[in-house]
Amino acid sequence: MKRTINILTLLTVAAMACALQSCERYLDAKPNAKLTTPSSLQDLQYMLDDYSNINNVGYPATSEVLSDNYYLSDQDWTSLSNLYDRNNYLWIADDTDASAYTRPYMVVYIANVVLEQLPNIPYQSAETSQFNQIKGSALFLRAALHYAVAQLYGQPYDANNEQVGAGIALRYTADYKDPVVRSSVKETYASMISDLKEAARLLPVVPLVKSRPSKPAAFGWLARAYLAMNDFENAGAYADSCLQLYDSLMDFNALDASANAPISRFNEEVIFHARGTVNAALHPSRAKIDTNLYQSYADDDLRKIVYFKENADGSHAFKGDYDGSGVSTGYVFGGIATDEIYLVRAEAQARSGNTEAAMEDLNVLLASRFDHGAFVPLTATDAEEALALILGERRKELLFRGTRWTDLRRLRNDPRFFTAPKRTMDGNGYELPAESPRFTLLIPHDVITINNMPQNP
Does domain 2-252+336-451 have CATH number 1.25.40.390? Predict the structure, then answer.
């Protein structure tokens, strides 16, 4: 046990050093090998079970800060102490803050430590499943956090520009001295997909706890990644693979809609649990739900009372996070849940022209969200109408998950479904048109300078 504590403690110190030093050389703080070299599979599993570092800080809340799900009053915007958050809210280019960039790489670092140490650990044949789970988990985490970085700092995937577009720095080793090179967009997504496919082969169907990756989680993240690429055939196939293994939905009729946190952590829809750090801009005391978005929920749609709490001024705060925090903190859920996967499969079906199957998936989800006596299944005359309904419900279902930002990026070139987000602050208007380079954040200045990487436009 003493060795395990040292491993986790010193990895935490290394991760903190990474954050403070902007990951100048990936991780300048190398743990003391005498204290931290793992000697058993259980040592490596303890490293992956470090909830505070693995599940709690790596998934940037910045994706939600950039989204159009909410708005800030002039006073609340001014009260933000972090200028970087204020600029991101208005989509103003800023390269000063490194936390959203470095925190995902902390998890990638730990995953790479595990993958490098794993071949050196002797194990018995009876431990093969544990070996596979550890390797699969590390591969899953590396891919998931590379994905998180790519949604902010890599250019949006474009099949016509995948070789030219700038992706992210992919890290395959724990050696901070390895050169830091930006990959193409194609290489970035190919790496994530390769890791996830291998993880899916190795991981168990049912994890011991939902903070550990599983086979359905790997399939779900593959569906998410392919959707970000607008590869709807593969997105649908992996969404189906996920739901074949795990398809539970909550019945919102059974929730206490009046509670400040109606949805519990590790609820039955959660496939893999992770959350981003708290961001002051997103705290329910500040972030007010977009008025048009709130009004789009039907009166008998239980999400209208499960997801939202009315403020004294008549605006609404979000309380429906999948972390069980509600109005107390406002965490952004960064994991995988079945409701998202139903929507991925439904969209893929609609885009392939299978209207009936698309609407069936959508109605299965919505039936669990509406008052039992009030729900009337939605219908669509053709695939395009079905697609419009599905994308509308995706917006209404997946609030404060970070998915809206990726949706804006992938839909920006489709005038049927893209409307440029707008903000108003201090009497001035701000807009994010489809052609804006601000769909990709600037990489932190220190990272660019030290590693001599090309900056985003």
Answer: yes
